[in-house]
Fold:
Amino acid sequence: MDLGLRGKTAIICAASRGLGRACALALAEAGVDLVITGRDFGALNAAASDIAAATGVNVRVAPGDITTPEGRAVALALCPEPDILINNAGGPPPGDFRDFTDDAWHAALNANMLTPIALIRAVIDPMITRGFGRIVNITSASVKSPISNIGLSNGARAGLTGFVAGLARDVARHNVTINNLLPGPFDTDRLRATARAAAVRAGRNVEDEIAARAAQNPARRIGRPAEFGAACAFLCSTQAGYIVGQNLLLDGGAFNATM
Structure:
């Protein structure tokens, strides 16, 4: 399927690895020129080189912390009026909510709610003027099914979800869509890090720990980042203009519900 995106531009946050990188590659394969952000300059440059070599599109890097005004300014200076914005940032640490300080809450809200809103605010009016825009927020399956030990993430991401639900309906008539992608377990560095810690506690190796998690999923496997990237690219396509304000869950069926 031709996604109708060739020649368009995108800012993709936290794209040096994992799901952000998968989204960047999928959009590049559709012919989108990219600005990718990340804090690890070496990994960011490597991702840009690999994606450009594989697809032939123009990939520029915006090194820095996207959760800071300075980091956002770098990305927006390179691409002030993107056609596509992919919001993405690492989740806050787990823990007992009784131990979360005000600073921890402020950091979580800044990274997983206020930063995406700031970027949306910066790019949405030019999208409206052009009559095309696609904004995808990478959130978490915990938005649908909260996980008790990641209260910081549950709260911040739910706030973003509520904000998007209202705004998406206001701008849809301009062919500007805003949707959220909710990942479950995917084979990323983050999953492997958490699996490694769990494996140590359980006295087994990482691959066995991941296999045990996969066995609990209705799909009997862990998600592949390329699958996530493909879903993101479709939401950004010209064919997806009637998908508005949705929370698309990619979890292999782990969330059990009729709707």
User: Anything to note?
Assistant: The beta strands are 9-12, 33-38, 59-63, 84-87, 133-138, 176-183, 247-250. The chain has a mean pLDDT of 95. The longest helix spans residues 102-130. Residues 67 and 111 are 5 Å apart (CA to CA).
